[in-house]
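Private note to self, pasted from the team thread so I don't lose it. Backbone tokens:
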């Protein structure tokens, strides 16, 4: 069930759903947390200046193997990274480019180029990304690029960090 709807209904009947609201606050802050406290820190530790860095975000949809953009928090990661003046590209084979432009004013990247990115974030667990594997995804990055896996698509020892 949608937690926003459940919260609304609970409040209508006089109940204050503290646990649900706490969960919502955590989810709402996760994009900034991933960008600020994880990816940017990994980049700095590797000597990669986030200002002007090229970052590829793999996935925009709300969940894996689905084109639905409603309630996606990936846009929060993109915006947080752009706050560091990073050049952020988003690739999602499931999402219609016109929908991404209309809903979030994002231009999707059709096919990322190999060897171009300073950091790569696997933000949605689409099967296409799992099929690429760590080697295929790392090939999109420059030597020494950061690879961060939000959705545990790749083995732990194949990435620089994950939630």
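Design output:
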């Amino acid at each position: 069930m949608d937690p926003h709807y459940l919260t609304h209904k609970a409040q209508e009947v006089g109940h204050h759903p503290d646990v649900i609201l706490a969960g919502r606050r955590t989810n709402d802050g996760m994009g900034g947390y991933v960008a600020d406290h994880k990816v940017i820190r990994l980049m700095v530790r590797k000597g990669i200046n986030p200002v002007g860095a090229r970052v590829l975000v793999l996935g925009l949809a709300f969940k894996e193997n689905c084109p639905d953009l409603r309630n996606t928090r990936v846009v929060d990661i993109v915006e947080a990274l752009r706050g560091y003046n990073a050049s952020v590209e988003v690739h999602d084979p499931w999402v219609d480019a016109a929908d991404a432009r209309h809903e979030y004013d994002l231009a999707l990247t059709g096919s990322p180029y190999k060897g171009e990115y300073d950091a790569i974030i696997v933000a949605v667990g689409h099967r296409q990304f799992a099929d690429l594997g760590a080697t295929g995804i790392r090939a999109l990055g420059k030597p020494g690029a950061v690879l961060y896996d939000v959705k545990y698509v790749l083995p732990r020892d194949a990435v620089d960090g994950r939630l």
